[in-house]
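Extended Data, record Cbb3-type cytochrome c oxidase subunit 3
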Amino acid sequence: MLHLLNNAALSAEEGGHHVVNELPIPTEMFGVIAFILFILMLIATVSFSPRGKSPEIGQYEDPSELPANERAMINDLNSPRQH
């Protein structure tokens, strides 16, 4: 039985026509384009995160120098929770 399957595979390989679908660009360019798109998506993601707008290290060492809304947020986080 295996011999018949092997013969069928060989005859199909020899007798069939070979279809070649040419790609519009070289295969390496698919990887390069995907890499560039992922980097652009990363930049867009980071630009909308607060890390992109964070103050310099040491700019606000004293909590009293923080803007009022940030001071209120920190005070709210540090206050004891009431259930």
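Summary. The chain has a mean pLDDT of 76.
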